[in-house]
């Protein structure tokens, strides 16, 4: 398969070919100028002479092609070759150079035929090489998959979405719109964290809250954002056919979709979506830029946690379009009395071993408050790790934080609780979701007291901080040994514990 095909090759095209020759992937130049072919071959570039305005002949000669570049000198001829490229390769990424001394009408005509138009008055060859080299492959793939989707597209965040998930989903909605696909940002659960509610309301993001039994047949395709498996950390059926997955969390199992972008080296999924917007020269509006910037700041803890160069570059780009006054309002929302009560309970019920703090707040209908309590308790003197949990009638929810320690919370929670529920996250921020029936005997007269002991002791056990009584048989093989037991269910709290 030819990775890159050049149709025509003027002076600008020659410079671009030379810049790409050493990059991964094959390259073929087709032109009807014999002298150009001779010159290119003398420099070791694969070039052939043929009639390049016949789409069938071009396709027969070049075979399957990933990218087509039209880069001759004459604007009118470039327009004709762009039409050839579009007809011969309707699914390929086509980049067209407007030509020398092109008029505005020339650019307008080319815009309707190619995926990206190049005008040297606005671009230079070095930046163009980046759009068609290996680093731009994901962008081309994303565009191609989006164009082929059956709409409307459901862009599904993880349960109880945080700013990174919400902003990333809205950005993917914008990219789908650019590709001509109707889409809708959807989520299960609730947006209860007061900061997250302020985030959605101030930026006026339109989100659809799906009921657990929602009819999904009205959607033609599904995309997952900020998580990677249907039915795990969302309300989708596990067998859902997923078209796209974009996430920055390390996957625990193979991810299946037509397009997958999993980059665990970056601090936020918003960074990935910002990269696509930049590569496609799709400037975000004020609301989207503000949302993506806040998503990066939250998931990197203001660039102090698992941050990389790409996060800083994305934030710097977004700052030009974002509204910093709105950011300030999002960061300073009022705290609900229920959240304050949860934080107070976490402080009152804390147990500290070495520099690790564990606290059970009791009944906890608001899961977001657990994350806020875990954050607040991390500010206590001599505490480097916090683990805060609470429960409803059916489920235990937990949120953990770490700072200045070698503990990997994501791995710790997986080791401690994966046999009976779902757990995971990052090294310094993680969460868990555990069915109560998998932790205690259903006949226990005071099950919640047993839950308090079992969960806290299991966490301490995993960290090897103190000897404890043996935990229930649920931790031996993933099943509770009582008569009502069954296989552990699929389920997952947000991997950042929010």
Automatic annotation (TrEMBL):
GO terms for biological process: potassium ion transport. Residues 355-436 form the DHHA1 domain. Pfam families: DHH (PF01368), DHHA1 (PF02272), TrkA_N (PF02254). GO terms for molecular function: nucleic acid binding. Residues 466-479, 487-498 have a biased composition (Basic and acidic residues). Residues 466-498 are annotated as: Disordered. Coiled coil: none annotated. Residues 154-296 form the DDH domain. Residues 7-93 form the RCK N-terminal domain. Signal peptide: none annotated. This is DHH family phosphoesterase. It comes from Salinirubellus salinus.
């Amino acid at each position: 398969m030819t990775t890159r095909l050049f149709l025509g090759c003027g002076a600008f095209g020659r410079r671009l070919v030379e810049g790409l020759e050493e990059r991964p992937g094959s390259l073929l130049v087709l032109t009807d100028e014999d002298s150009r072919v001779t010159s290119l071959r003398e420099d070791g570039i694969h070039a052939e002479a043929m009639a390049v305005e016949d789409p069938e002949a071009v396709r027969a000669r070049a075979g399957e092609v990933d990218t087509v570049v039209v880069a001759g000198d004459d604007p009118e001829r470039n327009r004709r070759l762009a039409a050839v490229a579009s007809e011969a390769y309707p699914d390929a990424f086509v980049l067209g150079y407007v030509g020398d001394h092109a008029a505005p009408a020339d650019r307008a005509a080319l815009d309707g035929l190619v995926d990206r138009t190049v005008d040297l008055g606005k671009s230079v060859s070095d930046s163009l090489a980046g759009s068609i080299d290996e680093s731009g492959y994901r962008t081309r793939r994303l565009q191609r998959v989006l164009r082929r989707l059956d709409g409307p597209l459901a862009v599904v965040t993880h349960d109880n979405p945080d700013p990174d998930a919400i902003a990333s989903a809205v950005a993917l909605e914008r990219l789908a719109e650019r590709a001509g696909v109707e889409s809708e940002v959807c989520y299960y659960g609730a947006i209860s964290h007061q900061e997250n509610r302020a985030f959605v309301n101030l930026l006026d993001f339109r989100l659809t809250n799906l009921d657990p039994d929602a009819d999904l047949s009205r959607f033609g395709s599904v995309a997952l954002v900020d998580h990677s498996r249907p039915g795990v950390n969302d309300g989708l059926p596990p067998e859902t056919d997923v078209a796209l997955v974009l996430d920055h969390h390390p996957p625990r199992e193979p991810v299946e979709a037509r397009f997958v972008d999993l980059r665990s080296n970056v601090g936020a999924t918003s960074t990935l979506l910002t990269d696509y917007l930049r590569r496609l020269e799709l400037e975000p509006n004020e609301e989207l830029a503000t949302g993506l910037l806040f998503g990066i700041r939250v998931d990197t803890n203001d660039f102090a946690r698992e941050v990389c160069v790409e996060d800083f570059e994305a934030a710097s780009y977004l700052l030009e379009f974002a509204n910093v006054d709105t950011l300030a309002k999002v960061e300073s929302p009022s705290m609900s009395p229920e959240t304050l009560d949860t934080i107070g309970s976490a402080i009152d019920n804390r147990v500290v071993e070495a520099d690790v703090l564990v606290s059970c707040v009791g009944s906890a209908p608001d899961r977001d408050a657990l994350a806020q309590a875990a954050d607040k308790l991390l500010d206590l003197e001599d505490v480097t790790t916090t683990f805060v949990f609470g429960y409803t009638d059916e489920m235990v929810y937990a949120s953990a934080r770490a700072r200045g320690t070698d503990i990997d919370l994501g791995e710790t929670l997986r080791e401690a609780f994966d046999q009976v529920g779902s757990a995971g996250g990052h090294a310094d921020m993680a969460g868990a979701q555990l069915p109560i029936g998998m932790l205690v005997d259903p006949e226990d007269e005071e099950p919640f007291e047993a839950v308090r002991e079992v969960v806290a002791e299991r966490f301490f056990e995993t960290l090897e901080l103190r000897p404890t009584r043996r935990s229930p048989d649920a931790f031996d093989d993933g099943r509770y040994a009582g008569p009502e037991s069954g296989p552990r269910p699929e389920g997952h709290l947000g991997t950042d514990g929010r």
